[in-house]
Automatic annotation (TrEMBL):
It comes from the Bacteria. This is Acetyltransferase (GNAT) family protein. The lineage of its organism: Bacteria, Bacillati, Actinomycetota, Actinomycetes, Pseudonocardiales. InterPro entries: Acyl_CoA_acyltransferase.
Amino acid sequence: MVDPVTEPIPYAWDAFVKEESLPVLWHGRTLATASWLGQTPSVLCAVTDGPRTVALFFGRLQGLSDPRRYHAPAEAAPGFFECRLYPGSLAGYRFDERLDAAGQAAAVAAFESALRARFGRRVAGVAYRHVAPEHVAAVRGRNRLVRPVQPEPVLYNRWSDPGQYRAELPGKWRSQLRKVQATVAADPTLSVRLCPEVPEREATRLVQQIGRRHRPWWLIRPPIPESYFRVLNEDPGTEFVCYFSGERLLALSTVHDTGTELQMSHWGSRDRTDGGRQNIYFDQFLRVADLMIDRGRALTRFGKGMTEIKARFATTQESRFLVAGR
């Protein structure tokens, strides 16, 4: 168990990430970079059984923080440990697929024991975010609160070509999405490219603009640093659906290809007053779905949020839960 800002990443962590073909969002270097966003300490924990790594856990001790600080010292204030992958809305745990229910529960117990050994009474409780139904029993303990949260939209690939996918879109939205694509294609000032990297400063600014639009004015969060997009740029499994006006970047959609599935993460776009376009948010999902079909990937995870909009693209709404308590 380490704080990735101040301590080296355990070999067991990245070895498990590589073995399980997890996206770059789970790489130790990525999480170390993301941890500088935290105003409270981050924790990265690899649970092993002999030579075998059986589970990973990542999150933050969420207590009182000073909004003027980007990273708090190890002497954290008491609070709940929030198990979640930052930045974003993904579950902060991964189990070895060979673990049975008893093994998963044992891995959770080992993690929580190490967590309390590190922080003592400063850990008032643990909150697991975005828990899949099959893992609720492993993390709920005896008396923890279990509450359904916003589901995760997942698009399962069952088509041989993009045209077939378009034909099977929900009837209510099929013609509307066709118009969206036609509008984007007809704009002579707009071009769309799949890029292996993006300008780091522009990317963090555009993603930050989206964050400002969708969170309360009083909620202060440090922006994603340029160094985070530098890590994504260097990852061969990460690409960006980019929208340009000439050579000016208008929007980007981040896509991680594990070789078996696609994971969408960061979306950023200019405001309409700064040259942004109205329909490209919807257009990105069609393009990523086409990419999934063309590459023969099993599924695409669209990411949490905007559930009703993402349902228009034939996604399955998979249940997720918050599990919290002592």
